[in-house]
Specification:
This protein has a domain of 350 residues. The protein contains 15 helices and 15 strands. Strands 1-15-14-5-6-4-9-8-2-7 form a ten-stranded mixed sheet. It has a five-stranded mixed sheet with strand order 3-13-12-11-10. A hairpin with a 2-residue loop joins strand 8 and strand 9. This is Eukaryotic translation initiation factor 3 subunit D. InterPro entries: eIF3d (IPR007783).
Length: 573
């Protein structure tokens, strides 16, 4: 096969510059026929083959063609002045791309850095990757917020919203609400009291076993059970000693250390509680109901991690409070030297029968001066005694309990060896109210030392068997400073409540902590309220502790009267 020759033709040379020479006589003859030629200048605007930044939908003339195939509009310059209209418009309309699909967008590409205000010809692009980045940023921000809320240690933070708390007492329709006091007003109160006066000491104390100070997680000790020692949680008006002091007109206001500590630490409380107030004559009695929440110990009250709401769950708030009370009682008796050597006081235990084995406890009936003609008497408790440098020191014994490390975020068995401060800081965050109440009770009793035990379950799902991992001691005044507990503010809260109640008429009232708001309410109740409304819920055999009803029988066995009016009649006589 013979291939045809390809002739390029004559290419004129312009020695004077760029472009065709000035004389076009020879060049025009060599040009192909029927090809239009338009001379141009370098300053003129060049046309575009395709404009990928144009929005065909904003142009009314292109909407019809765009509805057929939007990908073709980037090649449509019918409305552009850069190119004149062709002689046959049908030729442009018949032009189609072989592949009409839009080019794939890169998964990770540069962000649009164009401002719509300055570049109105650019479209408002909504990239999928931009939206994905926004969603990922929101997820990351939410994760950081959750992590921050779980780890911050501010006790005044917003309370957890997942849990729904119930009132400690059922508010009856016939009750008359007299006043409600927000906790914000308590923080501004301050009142200083002089040193208290000891009126009477009752009971007996066993000595503290110092070997428990050397207990560590590596040589833990099993928590024993003291089924045959009786513990008493007697309210104010059932106490025969307080009745006697009221008859002798020793004071105007009467209470117990547990009730006073609840009032003093009220701003730190989350769970609902209630205190019965009886105004009889010129005297004021602060009482607790039978089976009150004050007999139990709250667990994880100020924690941000919600506990299970099912009451029968071993990690529910109620189950943990019963378990904590059981641990606290047994711990307070196990760390003693049980050799029969006891320190006895003026009178025996006022709630025990003769020959009955009772727990090691001493009751200090103390009197504080609140005003020129107003005194307060409270029954305070200490659980042990120790001789340090030939000086006798009183101790209060309490136990913190670990039930599941996933709720606290700190494993005691690992951290107590090297980071005891971190464990205590976590407990101060999760149990701020309970620790503050223990500190207040130690200050009221003028205890020289408060011992805190760290008791954990043998297994997270076994709430019957426990071990003692460590015991630490603190001076109450120093510990109060560490947890920011002000003695002046504590007594300021008590003084304000007493002044408010002394203005009430004679009768019975109840002070209730609102279950969902940081405030307390005062209700006027009938005289026979809370008399016989307590139904005892028996504990498992392994957790038997002294029930409140048996305490009341112990009071009756000592010949104490059950009618408060008898005390008032005797006092008035």
């Amino acid at each position: 096969m013979v291939s045809g020759e390809f002739e390029i033709g004559a290419v004129p040379f312009n020695p004077d510059g760029w472009g065709p020479p000035e004389s076009t006589a020879t060049t025009t003859a060599a040009l192909p026929l029927h090809v239009p030629f338009a001379p141009f200048s370098r300053s003129e605007k060049l046309g575009r083959i395709a404009d990928w930044t144009r929005n065909a939908y904003n142009n009314p003339s292109n909407r019809q063609n765009a509805s057929k195939n939007p990908a073709d509009t980037v090649f449509d310059f019918s409305a552009d002045d850069s190119f004149p209209l062709s002689a046959n418009p049908d030729d442009d309309s018949s032009f189609r791309l072989v592949d009409g699909k839009p080019p794939p967008r890169p998964k990770f590409g540069p962000k649009w850095r164009f401002n719509q205000h300055h570049r109105p010809q650019l479209p408002q692009r909504r990239d999928e990757e931009v939206e994905a980045r926004k969603r990922e940023a929101e997820k990351e921000r939410a994760r950081r917020d959750r992590h921050y809320n779980l780890n911050r240690s501010n006790v005044n933070q917003t309370r957890r919203e997942a849990a729904v708390f119930k009132s400690s007492v059922d508010i009856q329709p016939e009750w008359n609400m007299l006043d409600q006091i927000p906790f914000s007003t308590f923080s501004k109160l301050s009142f200083s009291v002089s040193e208290p006066e000891d009126l009477l000491l009752c009971g007996s104390l066993e000595y503290y076993d110092r070997s428990y100070d050397r207990v560590t997680p590596k040589n833990e000790r099993r928590l024993e059970r003291f089924k045959y020692r009786n513990f008493f949680k007697v309210t104010t008006t059932d106490d025969p000693v307080i009745r006697r002091l009221a008859n002798e007109d020793k004071a105007t206001v009467f209470a117990t250390d547990a009730i006073l500590a609840t009032l003093m630490c009220a701003p730190r409380s989350v769970y609902s509680w209630d205190i019965v107030i009886q105004r009889v004559g010129n005297k004021l009695f602060f009482d607790k109901r039978d089976g009150s929440q004050l007999d139990l110990l709250s667990v994880h009250e100020t924690s941000q991690e919600p506990l299970p709401e099912a009451k029968d769950d071993i990690n529910s708030a109620y189950s943990l409070s019963v378990e904590a009370a059981y641990i606290n009682q047994n711990f307070s008796q196990q760390v003693l030297v049980r050799d029969g050597n006891k320190l006895t006081f003026d009178e025996p235990n006022p709630f025990a029968n003769e020959g009955e084995e009772v727990a090691s406890v001493a009751y200090r009936y103390r009197r504080w001066k609140l005003d020129d003609d107003m005194y307060l008497v409270a029954r305070c408790e200490v659980q042990s005694v120790v001789d340090v440098n030939n000086q006798r020191s009183f101790l209060t014994l309490n136990a913190l309990n670990e039930f599941d490390s996933k709720y606290s975020g700190v494993d005691w068995r690992q951290k107590l060896e090297t980071q005891r401060g971190a464990v205590l800081a976590t407990e101060l965050k999760n149990n701020a109210n309970k620790l503050a109440k223990w500190t207040a009770q130690s200050l009221l009793a003028s205890a020289d030392l408060m011992k805190l035990g760290y008791v954990s379950r043998v297994h997270p799902r076994d709430h019957f068997n426990h071990v003692i991992l460590a015991v630490m001691g603190y001076k109450p005044k120093d510990f109060a400073t560490q947890i920011n507990l002000s003695t002046a503010n504590m007594w300021g809260i008590v003084k304000s409540i007493v002044d408010l109640c002394m203005k009430l008429n004679e009768g019975k009232y109840v002070l209730v902590k609102d279950p969902s708001k940081p405030q307390v309410r005062i209700y006027e109740v009938p005289p026979d309220a809370f008399e016989n409304d307590y139904v005892e819920e028996p504990l498992p055999e392994e957790e038997q502790v002294q029930p409140p009803t048996e305490n009341a029988e112990g009071v009756e066995a000592n010949g104490a009267a059950n009618d408060l009016d008898d005390v008032v009649v005797d006092a008035q006589a």
